[in-house]
Amino acid sequence: MEKTPSPSGKLWLVGAGPGDPDLLTLRAARLLASADLVVHDGLVGAGVLALIPPHVERISVAKQRSRHTMKQELINELLVRETLTGKQVVRLKGGDPFIFGRGGEELDAAREAGVACEVVPGITAAAGCAAQAGLPLTHREDASAVSFVAGQCKDLSDQDWSGLAGHSRTLVIYMGIATATAIADKLIADGVSPDLPVAVIERGTTADARVLRTLLTDLGDLVAREAVKSPALIIAGKVAARADALDCLGVPGVAEELRNFA
């Protein structure tokens, strides 16, 4: 691929936030208005896409579990190729480009090709969705540390998550709905209390948002019982008992246990 930098083209890796268009940054909105091309993923909310002017070309590279419209390597090639023609290219990504967004790979590809590239951060799903749910990820009384992990990581059974959840810690799991039962079993096997409060936030920050709350031991059953669909976050920790959520009573005593934490 041609690696001579374009004199005018530039690539922007832009975070679209968790879904609500009002949470888009001003800088991101300005770039959408002035772009020649917007390459967006499937997690970008419809309200954000509506802000793209009609004359701006757009390409969807939406990905779903086990089914990708375009492989990441081809996305990288597309971004580089279009920018080298002199276009102002916005790569619009749900949440923040550098938190489970593969933005680092796209930045590496741009650098290797000599393409000018800049990153515009966005509100990541953990922060935006937890705030909407009234769930503080850190709290002076309940949590002094917070960890973000991917629930669809390779070799899940080989991971050691024992230090990520429990006393004074909050664990936020992205992309974990399909593996919720395995995640709960793994955490419990690694020593996390089965009675740890858990919140599940589905379609956070949107008009269709749903927040459910239970205990770790019930997580997999909750996801199945309530037919939870992606995109959704799992938040495990004492702070989950503070969420503005529906207590799911599939396990006897769950409401009483959650009141003990609140």
Describe the structure.
With 262 residues, this protein is of the alpha/beta class. It has 2 domains: 10-120, Tetrapyrrole methylase, N-terminal domain (Cobalt-precorrin-4 Transmethylase, domain 1, 3-Layer(aba) Sandwich), CATH 3.40.1010; 125-261, Tetrapyrrole methylase, C-terminal domain (Methyltransferase, Cobalt-precorrin-4 Transmethylase, Domain 2). The chain is built from 8 helices and 13 strands. It has helices spanning 26-34, 46-49, 72-84, 103-113, 125-132, 180-189, 219-225, 254-261, and strands spanning 10-15, 37-40, 57-60, 63-64, 67-68, 88-93, 117-120, 143-150, 168-174, 197-202, 210-215, 232-236, 246-247. A 6-stranded mixed β-sheet has the order 8-9-12-10-11-13, sandwiched between helices. Strands 3-2-6-1-7 form a 5-stranded parallel β-sheet, sandwiched between helices. Strand 2, helix 2 (46-49) and strand 3 (57-60) form a beta-alpha-beta unit. The longest helix has 13 residues, at 72-84. The model has no long low-confidence stretch (mean pLDDT 89).
